[in-house]
Design a protein that fits this description.
Blueprint lengths: L2 H12 L9 H4 L10 E2 L4 H5 L7 E4 L12 E6 L2 E9 L15 E5 L22 H10 L5
Parallel strand pairs: 1-5
Antiparallel strand pairs: 2-3, 3-4, 4-5
Amino acid sequence: MSWLGQHFSAQRHLHCPCHYPRPLLETRQAVGLLTKLRFVDNCESAKRATKTDQPYCIKLPRDKKVAKFGEVITIAHRGKVHKALIVGSRKPGSKRLPCYDTHHIVMLNEKLEPVGTRIVAPIPSELRRKSGQWSKVIALATKFI
């Protein structure tokens, strides 16, 4: 390819819309490995969680790259490993799921039952569709969006 051909192809490449800055909603991240999370229930670990000592994701379901709403992940907090359910995410999903400022989780025990006795933050009503599996989590929630 001649210099002139290279010049025009590079020029076309610079004007490609993929090089423009993305809007804020597209740059929001889903829950991946080492993503910091926020407890929305009143379990003992949530009471001790501070800004500098937040739980983070250490394992995703079925070795996926990202976890979505309603999936169980493995988290680490204060040197201990726990299971948690994602009940809110920063990444916009379908039109029915709200977008939060942080990733919200509810801590689960070994039997996949919630550890806390109350959920403080609003929960998306999409979780009711999975009511057979997460009926105990729905029973603890006070607000739905």
